[in-house]
Design a protein that fits this description.
With 190 residues, this protein is mainly α. Helix content is 56%, strand content 10%.
Length: 190
């Protein structure tokens, strides 16, 4: 997807939204490349797009959505939903993405910051901070390095396995067809 705006927050209710215009690339690049920690929400969506566009993201990346998942794995992970519980002073904003894109983007950045900091407090209160630190901050760094290295693929073995599975599926399909009554077959009028 196209990048339209990039939002940054650095304190509660202090956010900035920059259009993705070329004139702003140097500022966006400088902010993302800084060694400071970064807070994102669903970084698996935004971060690959920024990286593919040539922006390095340095510092520890904290994904508030993943931290929320550790806190409440049974609840929805959308930022608007989480904000309704953790940022009760925040009026609805998610419906304004087309009408007020800069406000929407800056608000997203601010709410990500505030919600994630509150999630961190709750993780610590509940004794789950070490789980987040170990399973997300430490192990994810290793996974990120592994992802960049890629996965070696044996193309000959992959093609052979694909052919074997195709034959197996044809056999299963044929055996199923033998036990399905003909009355169940679709009738096509001529």
């Amino acid at each position: 997807g196209n990048i339209i705006r990039v939002g940054f927050a650095y304190a509660p209710h202090m956010a900035l939204s920059l259009s993705y215009a070329k004139r702003n690339h140097s500022v966006i690049r400088r902010l993302l490349a800084s060694p400071n920690d970064k807070i994102v929400w669903n970084g698996a969506f935004d971060n690959p797009r920024l990286l593919a566009s040539g922006f390095d993201i340095n510092g520890t990346i904290h994904d508030g959505m993943i931290a929320w998942h550790i806190l409440h794995s049974d609840l929805p992970k959308g930022l608007g939903f989480v904000a309704s519980m953790l940022c009760p002073d925040q009026p609805p904003w998610k419906h304004l993405s087309r009408e007020l894109p800069s406000y929407y983007n800056a608000t997203d950045a601010d709410v990500e910051w505030r919600a994630t900091h509150r999630i961190w407090e709750l993780l610590k209160e509940l004794g789950l901070w070490e789980v987040y630190e170990r399973h997300v901050l430490q192990i994810d760094r290793i996974f990120a390095i592994m992802s960049k290295a890629g996965m070696p693929i044996d193309h000959v073995a992959r093609i052979a396995a694909s052919a074997q599975l195709t034959d197996l599926m044809k056999g299963i399909d044929a055996s199923i067809q033998n036990i399905v009554p003909t009355d169940c077959f679709p009738h096509h009028p001529k």
